[in-house]
């Protein structure tokens, strides 16, 4: 009998061969579910088995479970052909909450404070790399809108100091891109690289390193960023939640997108035309993902409303 985990691994291999490989996060979801199924002693997948996994697998919001369910459901569509005893999970069993949380938009002053606090982080090994690594990482995300995972997977070869560009290869939805960076950012990245090479013997090809010489983990970045925000009063200390609630590192990306849109509005540019550039820059699959910022941020809504009212007045006078 072929195990569910072996089925998942074969499924992932086939998708990779067809050029439709899945992200690391989705692979983890499918393998974790397969392990759960096997631990239950089950040889076939059912909807009840998924709901039992949901009940026992720990806390997550409705959207997270809806996403997990959708990926497992697609797998069961494929699996049912090979194993008719396994159910095709029904559509809509776990619905997704369509509303997205409103992002926190950092002011320039708040970003500067976060970076300053990060620079003062204690260096356990004494090499002095911890603070500059986090500060430079936060600053880069703030001025480029990179996703955290994209920034953490940058290699030395991806950071072209000479030409002032970043090559983003480890991108969501496999949307690779090259983006330019401002001269001041190039200078900061070059300074960090020099410090890093003096501080540690590089053992990992990634650009941002911890004091061990290895790539900084996502969990470490998130936890440290939260600590910096708590220290300047942007987040409250909460002992119940692992990280507490409030502004997050993801919001640096949101802040970049919103500031860009606001600047375009104030300069009188055609946002409907320019937004395609921002969509490509951010690595979105389509501009409709970028348009979300227009309705998620009150300031942008107000600017849009003022433009509509102005256009209406001109139409009435004509």
Overview features:
58% helix, 318 residues, three-stranded antiparallel β-sheet, 13 helices, mainly alpha
Write the layout of secondary structure elements.
Elements: H1 4-17, H2 24-39, H3 47-56, H4 62-82, H5 108-119, H6 130-144, H7 148-152, E1 159-160, E2 165-168, E3 177-180, H8 183-199, H9 218-231, H10 250-266, H11 271-282, H12 287-296, H13 298-317
Antiparallel strand pairs: 1-2, 2-3
Helix pairs in contact: 1-2, 2-4, 5-6, 5-9, 6-8, 6-10, 10-11, 10-13, 11-12, 12-13
Classify the secondary structure makeup into a structural class.
mainly alpha
Quote the distance from N terminus to C terminus. Answer: 77 Å
Poorly predicted regions are: none
Overall 3D shape: globular
How many helices?
13
Main sheet?
3 strands, antiparallel
Number of strands: 3
Order the strands across the largest sheet as they lie in space. 1-2-3
Q: What sequence of helices (H) and strands (E) makes up the elements?
A: HHHHHHHEEEHHHHHH
Averaged pLDDT: 85
Beta-strand content estimate: under 5%
How much helical structure, as a percent, in the residues? 55-70%
Rg value: 23 Å
Please tell me about this protein's structure:
The protein has 318 residues and is mainly α. The protein is built from 13 helices and three strands. It has helices at 4-17, 24-39, 47-56, 62-82, 108-119, 130-144, 148-152, 183-199, 218-231, 250-266, 271-282, 287-296, 298-317, and strands spanning 159-160, 165-168, 177-180. Strand 2 (165-168) and strand 3 (177-180) form a beta hairpin. Helix 10 (250-266) packs parallel to helix 13 (298-317) and helix 12 (287-296) crosses helix 13 (298-317). The mean pLDDT is 85.
